[in-house]
């Protein structure tokens, strides 16, 4: 039986070093951190401090250079072993939803088709019902038959969030989701994230430059030069 208190994600002395010519860039430079189930954590810090790199490592989108990464009590990466690509793909699609600053909607598909897009690759039972629930929750039910170009930026991001959640992930990863939005739309997205965390029990890992949104998270963590401040 699993321990109920075990962190959902655990990293120990994690490093990611990029090599550019003769230069070594320590984008993530020895970070140790636990993220609990149902936690809402926000990473802040100046541009180039390693936020995106860390988010990609926490989301199993990229391999660390060294250290340890455990997700749902499974070792994704350690000095001794690294999870193979097939298991990584499975872990990503079962546990994670991803949202980025750019919305990445398919312009020729309607809102509903965009939300349902992940079904083309992987379909959890019950997920079809989830589409309507999410559209209601995110306030885009009346937009389902529209094309992305007919939506405001805030609506586009809400569609991208619905798409990320269609297969009911346990963890939502978001890299500056309000980066392209004005303050009013940003506040709406911030409220949605709080609601998803508090009412749906979603674990949220956020990178943001938006101070109000960072404050609404349960925990704010600051990065500088690849290290926790
Ligand atoms: N693919 C890459 N190759 C080389 N250097 C990179 C790469 N991605 C990021 N970096 C460098 O790593 C550092 C951290 O970048 P990043 O994680 O994007 O920071 P942030 O998201 O906080 O702006 C920066 O110095 C950046 O230039
Ligand atoms: Mg970034």
Can you describe what's shown?
There is one protein chain. With 229 residues, this protein is α/β, with parallel strands linked by helices. It has 7 helices and 10 strands. The N and C termini lie far apart (36 Å). It has a single domain, classed as P-loop containing nucleotide triphosphate hydrolases (Rossmann fold), CATH 3.40.50.300. Helix 5 packs parallel to helix 6 (183-200). The model has no long low-confidence stretch (mean pLDDT 93). It is globular and about 50 Å long. It has a 6-stranded mixed β-sheet, sandwiched between helices. Strands 2-1-4-5 form a 4-stranded antiparallel β-sheet, covered by helices on one side. A hairpin with a 2-residue loop joins strand 1 (9-20) and strand 2. The structure holds adenosine-5'-diphosphate and magnesium ion. Adenosine-5'-diphosphate binds at residues 18, 20, 25, 27, 45, 47-53.
Number of helices: 7
In round numbers, the mean pLDDT is: 93
Quantity of strands, as a count: 10
Structural class: alpha/beta
- The CATH class, by name, is Alpha Beta
Specify the helix fraction band: 25-40%
**In terms of per-residue confidence, which ranges show pLDDT below 50 for 5 or more consecutive residues?**
none
> What is the domain tally?
1
Let me know the CATH homologous superfamily.
Answer: P-loop containing nucleotide triphosphate hydrolases
Strand content: 25-35%
Q: Tell me which ligands are bound.
A: adenosine-5'-diphosphate, magnesium ion
Identify the overall geometry: globular
């Amino acid at each position: 039986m699993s321990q109920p208190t075990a962190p959902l994600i655990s990293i120990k002395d994690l490093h990611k070093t990029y090599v550019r010519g003769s230069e070594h860039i320590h984008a993530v430079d020895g970070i140790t951190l636990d993220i609990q189930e149902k936690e809402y954590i926000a990473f802040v810090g100046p541009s180039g401090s390693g936020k995106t790199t860390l988010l990609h490592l926490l989301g199993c989108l990229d391999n660390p250079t060294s250290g340890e990464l455990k997700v749902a009590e499974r070792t994704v990466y350690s000095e001794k072993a690294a999870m193979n690509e097939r298991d990584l793909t499975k872990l990503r699609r079962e546990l994670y939803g991803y949202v980025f600053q750019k919305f990445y909607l398919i312009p020729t598909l309607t809102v509903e088709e965009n939300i349902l897009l992940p079904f083309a690759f992987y379909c959890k039972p019950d997920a079809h019902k989830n589409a309507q629930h999410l559209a209601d929750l995110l306030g885009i039910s009346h937009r389902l038959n529209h094309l992305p170009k007919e939506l405001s930026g805030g609506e586009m991001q809400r569609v991208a969030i619905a798409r990320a959640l269609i297969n009911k992930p346990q963890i939502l990863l978001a890299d500056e989701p309000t980066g392209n939005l004005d303050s009013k739309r940003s506040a709406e997205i911030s409220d949605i994230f709080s609601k998803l965390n508090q009412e749906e029990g979603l674990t949220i890992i956020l990178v943001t430059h938006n101070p109000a949104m960072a404050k609404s998270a349960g925990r704010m963590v600051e990065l500088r030069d690849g290290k926790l401040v």
